[in-house]
Specification:
Helix content: 25-40%
Bound molecules: flavin mononucleotide
CATH topology: NADH Oxidase
Number of helices: 7
Largest sheet: 5 strands, antiparallel
Oligomer: single chain
Distance between the termini: 45 Å
Strand content: 5-15%
CATH architecture: 3-Layer(aba) Sandwich
Number of strands: 5
Number of domains: 1
């Protein structure tokens, strides 16, 4: 597999949520996905316990069913927002633009060549109840999120793309049933499209400069 001619800093600043520029017609080889996973699995985990499982979806029928779950979960989420059960702030024009792209992914997900569902064992057995403390959340999520981001960076450096998605977790159990995941003891981190990108030129995102959101040695009392 050929790597793009990008520096590490360029990969870090141009790995975007790709939706409309996912190439839905180009197949993705399992070998490339496995290569990206090998890289991703180098990420750190709490107590060095890699209690994870990575489910790659590449059969059209399974992808179609996963896409159905995603679509239904998004419909439920939208209804929850409309009926005030879910807090949501529509802040900027950028949010409007984003939603068109979000809808595109929702409507075309069934056409993806592959997807990834990262699964983590609930090591302390508390995440599904109301016992979890910050320590449990930070340790558990911190033991899967670095590796998933590495996976996305590895895709990017190979001319491929993804988008971090969590919407389907409104229907997490349905996805667990579809893929045979033991729901009570295992948590899904999200659903990640895998495809080559249409073109490879992506730009850094608009973000607040670090200096605006960083302080040294103390919190700013009125920061928000
Ligand atoms: C925790 C998390 C959950 C997200 N969930 C979704 C999702 O369900 N569907 C979707 O289309 N994008 C989702 N996104 C993608 C974000 O909308 C996207 O990262 C954000 O708009 C910034 O764009 P960028 O990644 O290109 O900088 C999610 C991102 C994160 C980090």
């Amino acid at each position: 597999m050929t790597l793009l001619d990008l520096t590490i800093d360029e990969v870090l600043t141009t790995t975007r949520a790709v939706r409309k520029r996912l190439d839905l017609d180009r197949p993705v080889e399992r070998t490339v996905i496995e290569e990206c996973l090998e890289l991703a699995l180098q990420a750190p985990t709490g107590s060095n316990q890699q209690q994870w499982h990575w489910i790659v979806l590449d059969e059209p029928e399974v992808i179609g069913q996963a896409a159905d779950i995603y679509r239904e979960a998004m419909a439920q989420y939208s209804a929850d927002i409309a009926e005030g059960r879910e807090h949501y702030e529509r802040q900027t024009v950028r949010a409007e633009q984003m939603s068109e792209s979000v809808a595109y992914l929702r409507d075309n997900m069934h056409r993806l060549p592959a997807m990834l569902v990262p699964v983590l064992a609930d090591r302390f057995g508390v995440l599904r109840g109301d016992q979890a403390q910050t320590f449990h959340h930070a340790s558990q999520w911190g033991s899967i999120i670095p590796s998933v981001w590495s996976f996305m960076l590895a895709l990017r450096s190979r001319g491929m793309g993804s988008a971090w998605t969590t919407i389907h977790l409104h229907r997490e159990q349905e996805m667990a049933d579809l893929l045979g995941i033991p729901y009570e003891t295992h948590i899904q981190a999200g659903l990640f499209p895998i495809a080559y990108t249409i073109g490879t030129n992506f730009r850094p995102a608009l973000r607040q400069p670090a200096a605006k959101v960083t302080t040294y040695n103390h919190w700013i009392p009125d920061w928000e």
